[in-house]
Amino acid sequence: MNPQLEDCIVIGAGLAGLAAAKTLQSAGLGVLLLDKGRRVGGRMASRHFEGAHFDYGAQFFTARDPEFRRLIDGFLGTALATPWFDRDGETRYCSPVGMNALPRYLAEGLRIHCGVTVASVRRDGNLWRILAADGTEYATEVLVVTTPVPQALALLELDEQARGELGGIEYHRCLAILAVLAGDSAIPAPGFLRLTEQPLQTLADNRQKGLEGEATGVTILATPSFSLLHWDTPQEEVAELLLAAAAPWLGSPVTHWRYHRWRYSQPVQTFETRYYAVEGGPPLVLAGDAFGGPRVEGAFLSGVAAATWLLER
User: Fold this and answer.
1) Which residues is 88 bridged to in the sheet?
2) Which 3-state string (H, E, C) describes 264-304?
3) Tens of pLDDT along 260-273?
4) Which of 2, 96, 136, 292 is 20 to 30 A from 74 in CA distance terms?
5) In this predicted structure, which of 109-118, 130-139, 229-238, 286-295 has the lowest mean pLDDT?
């Protein structure tokens, strides 16, 4: 049986995919998002355990671009956005209920299938046919791919020029430890430290940040070099190393911890434009934080730009 034909399919329900889908749907297109995760948001990830609340991917976002700033200004004073701290004359924003709040808001009213691992994408005349790992098939005339670029290249049959232009985009890896403390941390206000010594990249006190919880939760993110070196190291050994390095700033005993690996944490370099359009067939456009800016707002603006290209073509 042939699958239902969708107006547009977006692969990836991180911020870029959600922004693209929202823009396309607002223009009257039917949009279906597919994401392999259990929930939307990608690296804008939050979780609770043992009485503590954590952001364990992106810790904050900026609003440098006027378009994104207008969006965030409309959210100030709500659960979606609040100023956290200023540095170098620029405000860092977060969500008082967790960084996943913004993608969850953008997901409202969208058709999203989570837990879908895309196994292959092939062109069939004027259609894109998508096969999921569980055997489910999808078809569309318009495809937006917002996965990390190496994953997109593994799925798509692109010509030599496109692979040459996109093949050099690489990503840092990042190992994260989420530590629950018996008391307060020793991280100075406002609860965020960017460090220069190995193996620590950043420390964030989620309670100082405003996330409610019975216990203090500290997010420890390792440097790219440490993360690459210890990518396959047993998590207990990684936790021992990172917790020992962070001890001067923890201030209280660690009662529990969790471990997370971000395979595609942040692009090492970005493409010069906010999207990458593939011509010569049914519409296909790639977007994400590797296009035009490796930040939260860069991902959002990339999704909007990709959708705008589709609407104007």
Assistant:
1) none
2) EEEECCCECCCCEEECCCCCEEECCCCECCCCHHHHHHHHH
3) 999 999 999 899 89
4) 292
5) 286-295
Six-digit token string for 259: 């471990």
Q: Given a cut of 70, is residue 1 above it in pLDDT?
A: no
What is the average per-residue pLDDT within 115-124? 96
Determine how many CB atoms are found less than 10 A away from the CB of residue 184.
13
CA-based nearest residue to 167, from 151, 182, 188, 150: 150
Contact present, 147 and 11 (Cβ < 8 Å): yes
3-state class of 26 per DSSP?
A: helix
Question: At 155, which helix (H) or strand (E)?
Answer: helix 149-155
SS3 assignment, position 109 = coil
Measured over all CA atoms, what is the biggest interatomic distance in the chain, rounded to whole angstroms?
62
Bigger pLDDT: 294 or 291? 291
CA 268 to CA 261: how far, in whole Å?
17
72 and 309 in contact (C-beta within 8 Å)?
no
Question: In the prediction, which pLDDT does 2 show?
Answer: 79
The pLDDT of residue 196: 80
Rounded Cα distance between 156 and 140, Å, is 15
Residues 293 and 270 sit within 8 Å (Cβ to Cβ) = yes
Report the distance separating Cα 21 and Cα 33, nearest Å.
Answer: 7
* Distance (Å, whole) CA 4 – CA 48: 38
Q: Specify whether the CB–CB gap between 127 and 140 falls below 8 A.
A: yes
**Dist. CA 293–CA 271, nearest whole Å:** 8
What radius of gyration, in Å, describes the C-alpha atoms of the chain?
Answer: 20
Both tokens assigned to 190: 């406002």
**Residue 133, CA distances (Å) to 35, 151, 248 in order:** 12, 15, 45
Residue 249: pLDDT over 70: yes
- Structure token pair of residue 170: 């690489």
Which residue ranges form the domains of the chain, and what is each CATH number?
5-36+115-169+270-312 (3.50.50.60), 46-97+171-267 (3.90.660.10)
